[in-house]
Amino acid sequence: MSAPPLDRPTAPDEAALQALFDATIAADHRIEPRDWMPEGYRRTLIRQIAQHAHSEIIGMQPEGDWLLAAPSLRRKAILLAKVQDEAGHGMYLYSAAETLGADRADLTDKLIEGRQKYSSIFNYPTLTYADVGVIGWLVDGAAICNQVPLCRSSYGPYARAMIRVCKEESFHQRQGYELLLTMMRGTDEQRAMVQDAVDRWWWPSLMMFGPPDDDSPNSAQSMAWGIKRHSNDELRRRYVDMSVPQAEVLGVTLPDPELSYDAEAGHYRFGAIDWAEFKRVISGNGPANAERIARRRAARDDNAWVTEAATAYAAKRTGERASQEGPATEERNEPGVEQ
Ligand code: 3HC
Prior knowledge:
- By secondary structure, the chain is mainly α.
- It contains 14 helices and two strands, in the order H-H-H-H-H-H-H-H-H-H-E-E-H-H-H-H.
- A two-stranded antiparallel sheet has the order 1-2.
- Strand 1 and strand 2 form a beta hairpin.
- Helix 4 packs antiparallel against helix 7.
- The N and C termini lie far apart (54 Å).
- 32% of the residues are buried.
- The C terminus is likely disordered.
- 3-hydroxybutanoyl-coenzyme A binds next to helix 2, helix 6 and helix 9.
């Protein structure tokens, strides 16, 4: 059922614009790039969308490391498609940030200079091929859990980008789970590799949802604006509830001795997350932060000539088109001038 239409006032003063913005949010309609929005809303969106875009682009690295070592042509084709999808996600998200007035090159510079964040999860190394499966299952699984509600985010371009991203993340999650199922049906050594990867990725996956609610400075305002639809802890709990039965089917043990089902609450209880580790990683001191940023910097600098060439070509094409079309219609049809 669609929300009722809004009365749109015509007065352009700030109070009326704010009232229209508030009514749009309250009615659960979308804010679009043409609409007036408070500066804080715009800044919060740029912060979150940029961080999300950076995560997709940096997130290509841990799995990209295995492209040349995939165990079969089939696995290589799947992994290649997945890594390319992540690049696409980054592009949709940078485009969404551009609708808010951000500049893509400037956002990339901020990432490289450590002035904008990217997800903590991509600062851990991928040690064996089982990590590729576990990233698909746990990391993309966490991404889906966090991002499906963002398809209803109040900012139109972000919400629409999320629809396609989530469809592709579903494929990513399934390919990871299928890879792990195959390995679990293999040798003892393969099963041990899967368990070892689960042991290393489980806790960092829980950290992806962000700090606990009582230590999350942005949540309250972001939820009031409809940018985020659920709190960090709520989504983390949903993720644990979803993952435990999947681990049982797979035949792996999640590395948390305190994990137990609370029938009264209808949720799994889990042990304490190491928030000191989380803070270390997001402040640039995780196991692979330096390597991730160094590679991103090299990609920007080594490929600058491609951007320059593409920009020069686009400018040339625009110039050619303008000279073919001649002067604008209004000038050609000046009153009193015979055609
Ligand atoms: N990694 C790095 N930084 C994190 C983080 C994480 N896992 N979780 C939180 N933070 C940062 C926040 O950005 C914020 O820092 P800032 O104010 O300097 O920007 C600070 O920690 C406090 O956290 P808050 O809870 O107050 O921040 P938010 O309200 O922004 O919530 C979030 C954090 C839940 C991650 C939210 O921003 C969000 O939902 N973002 C969109 C999804 C996203 O970015 N996902 C990244 C993973 S993408 C991915 O997984 C790709 C796929 O291919 C696997």
